[in-house]
Amino acid sequence: xxxxxxxxxxxxxxxxxxxxxxxxxxxxxxxxxxxxxxxxxxxxxxxxxxxxxxxxxxxxxxxxxxxxxxxxxxxxxxxxxxxxxxxxxxxxxxxxxxxxxxxxxxxxxxxxxxxxxxxxxxxxxxxxxxxxxxxxxxxxxxxxxxxxxxxxxxxxxxxxxxxxxxxxxxxxxxxxxxxxxxxxxxxxxxxxxxxxxxxxxxxxxxxxxxxxxxxxxxxxxxxxxxxxxxxxxxxxxxxxxxxxxxxxxxxxxxxxxxxxxxxxxxxxxxxxxxxxxxxxxxxxxxxxxxxxxxxxxxxxxxxxxxxxxxxxxxxxxxxxxxxxxxxxxxxxxxxxxxxxxxxxxxxxxxxxxxxxxxxxxxxxxxxxxxxxxxx
Length: 375
What we know:
This protein is mainly α. It has one domain (46-373): Glycosyltransferase (Alpha/alpha barrel). The protein contains 14 helices and four strands. Helix 2 packs antiparallel against helix 3. The longest helix is centred in the middle third of the chain and has 21 residues, at 165-185. It is globular, with a radius of gyration of 19 Å.
């Protein structure tokens, strides 16, 4: 996947996929910004408001990084309301991820510091809805299921707070069609691939499957009808891909256990309400072994892995989760880089919009703003 295809098998198994795939080693960490983070020369009113209302020293530092990171995203949003990865790629997925980071701050389409940007993102994604229900462009995106899943998640979280009746009805229509498309795109084994089952010759892989399940769960929580059999098939797929040691393999066809996909799979099961799933204990043990030490960069896709592992740890709670969060905050603050537009994270090969949006989501989980991420 453009986010976490998971290794050599994903690069060679999918002839149609042309997008840059996995780098075996995460890009080296850039020179850290010294804490406390200094305000940019040109500071937005939104950023000043956050900084004036901050609390203790630690929270103050995190809040300032979040404010400046969101400010950076605002300045990178196109006039059409979209964001893109490197080389202008994956605008649907990037727009949904960036929009979700702004929702987590507490903004909606009508209220909050980032209401204008959220509203533009919603309008852009609604405009990407096709007649068959896909949110995205199959001609311009060879991994369009990512954008479809992230868009379902983003729009479903918008829906609960949408006050404009016309826009609300439009979002409901788009999501209902999107659910139908996701059901048709599901493979015979219960997973999803980079494209629909029909377009991808029934190929599936773990990361795209997790993206669809989270999006579908968000839709169901928002009142959109989601056939139970779609979720049941997806859960069975995750079970099939779970190895004896708790690692979740790349695909139902094999590929070996992947820490990043394993963390995403646990988050997916939690989203589906499968807290008592018999597979979860050994999956958690596997994930902790590989991801508990955040300095471990040896497995690739570090930011993607911790994007989901942070969700898992937040739901687990307790002292271990608190320690993990402190370590994550320290590392993410150190890795942030400042420019005239604010703070961003340039690490990784997908692009700074992706890494910045996912890191801002991690940093804001404790707010408990969005239903999909709540305990």
